């Protein structure tokens, strides 16, 4: 079945931009680590396409998009060359890169979810595939660079918007597959979901919204008698 992100030229163009932006961020991290040019290229490629590779492998799609889509592979290689030259300028574009990274996050979440549904997965599986597509590239990048993954160390909303967007995408896509909405409404729905993810991510960074951690507690409600009995039994 034809779906928006698989058939719309506008979304194709944005996907290439998203790959380029993710690659820039990954390549910049590699440059700061003072890695050589080949390492920069590998980091850019895996940052931009790593999430899609993981998704396709889990869905049993071979070869995965990271090696089968010539356009995206060439885009990642061009990005590697570009970031090796213009990395000082890229490093100064903080808010621009935050916005572009958020755009890539939204596009990958929606795209990954829809692709999973095309292959007849359940809604829950599709949500996980969308989340993996969105955050997988950054996860691989940070593992390569031997740093704590951004999805863990950055407590601002990152995985949360992607997760919400993936869930919403399941509802929109199921509605289209069931004939309840037209293709045009599906396209509009996808655009709204991507914009929603971008807004949530950017606002969380701008206003320092963070995901809460564990609840602070100073007392454990555990009977001491049970602990004493276990010590006696030893």
Summed up:
With 234 residues, the chain is an all-alpha fold. 78% of the residues lie in helices and 0% in strands. The N and C termini lie far apart (65 Å).
Itemize the secondary structure elements and their pairings.
Elements lengths: L3 H4 L1 H24 L4 H23 L5 H4 L1 H23 L1 H25 L4 H22 L5 H4 L5 H19 L5 H24 L17 H10 L1
Helix pairs in contact: 2-3, 2-5, 2-6, 3-5, 3-7, 6-7, 6-9, 6-10, 7-9, 9-10
Labels describing this entry:
234 residues, mainly alpha, single chain, globular
Question: What features would you describe in this structure?
Answer:
The protein has 234 residues and is mainly alpha-helical. It has helices at residues 4-7, 9-32, 37-59, 65-68, 70-92, 94-118, 123-144, 150-153, 159-177, 183-206, 224-233.
Sheet of most strands: none
SSE pattern, N- to C-terminal: HHHHHHHHHHH
What's the average pLDDT?
88
Task: Please give the number of β-strands.
Answer: 0
Helix content: over 70%
Taking all Cα atoms into account, the compactness measure Rg is 21 Å
Strand content: under 5%
**Could you say which structural class the secondary elements and strand pairing correspond to?**
mainly alpha
Distance between the termini: 65 Å
Poorly predicted segments = none
Inertia-based shape: globular
Number of helices: 11
């Amino acid at each position: 079945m034809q779906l928006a992100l698989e058939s719309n030229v506008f979304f194709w163009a944005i996907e290439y931009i998203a790959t380029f932006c993710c690659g820039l961020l990954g390549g910049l991290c590699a440059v700061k680590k003072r890695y050589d040019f080949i390492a920069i290229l590998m980091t850019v490629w895996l940052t931009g396409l790593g999430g899609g590779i993981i998704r396709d492998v889990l869905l049993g799609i071979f070869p995965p998009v990271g090696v089968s889509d010539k356009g995206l592979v060439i885009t990642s290689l061009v990005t590697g060359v570009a970031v090796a030259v213009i990395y000082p300028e890229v490093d100064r574009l903080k808010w621009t890169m935050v916005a572009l990274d958020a755009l890539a996050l939204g596009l990958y979440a929606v795209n990954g979810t829809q692709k999973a549904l095309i292959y007849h997965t359940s809604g829950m599986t599709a949500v996980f595939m969308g989340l993996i597509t969105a955050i997988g590239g950054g996860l691989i990048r940070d593992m390569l660079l031997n740093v704590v993954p951004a999805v863990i160390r950055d407590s601002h909303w990152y995985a949360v918007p992607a997760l919400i967007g993936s869930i919403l995408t399941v509802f929109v896509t199921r509605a289209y597959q069931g004939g309840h909405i037209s293709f045009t409404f599906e396209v509009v729905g996808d655009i709204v979901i991507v914009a929603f993810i971008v807004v949530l991510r950017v606002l969380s960074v701008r206003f320092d919204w963070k995901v809460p951690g564990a609840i602070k507690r100073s007392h454990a409600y555990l009977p001491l008698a049970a602990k004493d009995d276990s010590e006696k039994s030893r």
